[in-house]
Design goal:
This protein is of the alpha+beta class. It has 13 helices and 12 strands.
């Protein structure tokens, strides 16, 4: 591990003021420290933000919920307001990592975690545009079983690892951040980036910006929801495919629907065409199957990951059926 300076801050202003191009904000460290040990991340300074007053989970005046960036994943999943009004989020968080990691990991850190593509995680692979921009992509000619089928580019085929973020996308969350230019709100769908020609940038955060909270709007999806995660090991593993499905059903018809996917793209992936197909229709398995096919209409399988398309379609159907029930 490269030597680094460590700084603990007590205010948001101090954290932003201390940030530089070669520094990183440190939350639970469950991803960042591992990357530093392997030489993937090499910051000059770690700015410890865990003592900042950003751990509260509290109602918003509009009926939504504000979830603090430094609140632990486990505390968030177990919070009574999250379990009552946003159970899809609680279910997604509990599907991720292990209890020990959830006790350490923060919500802000979860938003910032990086891909688990083995070609990115191991500096022994010399070609990785995410780690070494312009070097190439060893994964393109390697084992791509766990890689993207949607939204990837010639520069990067890695997938995003978070479970929590898939649920946040389905729930139309907004990320509140503050930086040298002030405070702003970033819709969850715009927070993470597709790789394009610059896969080294995972998010749309500007230099020095710090995540303050995750703001959730009022939700009508507390009754019919399901987060379904398909993985090699049930006990602890990243998703091959995951689905955040939520339905608002009234009078025997779907008034609104949400379908978001994990494990299939460089960012959490929303399926708006599938949602539009579901809206206004009486729910049944045939409808769910048509929506599932629509969700993967633009999929482009690679050499070893074509299985993700039928697997993802079946996962969508199952998740929607479970949500309805």
């Amino acid at each position: 591990m490269k030597a680094f300076q460590y700084s603990r801050v007590d205010t948001v202003e101090a954290a932003i003021g201390a940030a530089t191009a070669s520094s990183r904000f440190l939350g639970g460290g469950t991803n960042l420290v591992d990357l530093m040990k392997d030489g993937v991340e090499t910051p000059d300074t770690l700015i410890d933000v865990t003592r900042l007053p950003l751990a509260d989970i509290a109602p918003l005046p509009n009926g939504g919920l504000r979830v603090g960036a430094t609140a632990r994943n486990s505390d968030t999943a177990d919070h009574p307001l999250v379990r009552q009004h946003y159970p899809l989020l609680a279910q997604a968080i509990l599907a991720g990592a292990s209890p020990q990691l959830r006790n350490m990991a923060t919500n802000g850190g979860n938003l910032m975690q990086r891909t688990r593509c083995p070609y990115f995680m191991d500096p022994g692979f010399r070609q990785c545009n995410k780690r070494l921009p312009g070097s190439g992509c060893d994964a393109r000619d390697g084992l791509d079983r766990n890689h993207a089928v949607l939204g990837y580019s010639a520069a990067c085929i890695a997938t995003h690892p978070s479970d929590m973020c898939v649920a946040l996308l389905a729930l139309d969350a907004t990320i509140r951040v503050r930086g040298p230019q002030g405070e702003r709100m970033i819709p969850m769908g715009e927070f993470h980036r597709l790789p394009g020609d610059t896969p080294q940038f995972d998010t749309t955060l500007q230099p020095g910006e710090l995540i303050l909270s995750i703001d959730l709007p009022p939700s009508s999806f507390a009754r019919h929801y399901r987060y379904l995660k398909v993985r090699d090991r049930h006990s602890y593993d990243f998703a091959l495919v995951s689905v955040a499905a939520a339905l608002d059903v009234e009078g025997g018809r779907i008034r609104a629907a949400r379908v978001a996917l994990g494990g299939v793209a460089h960012k959490p992936w929303r399926a708006p065409a599938a949602e539009a197909l579901l809206q206004g229709q009486p729910p049944d398995q045939g409808l769910f199957r048509r929506a599932a096919r629509q969700a993967f209409a633009d999929a482009r399988p690679l050499s070893h990951n074509g299985y993700k398309i039928p697997l993802g379609q079946e996962a969508i159907v199952t998740a929607l059926q479970d949500a309805l029930a």
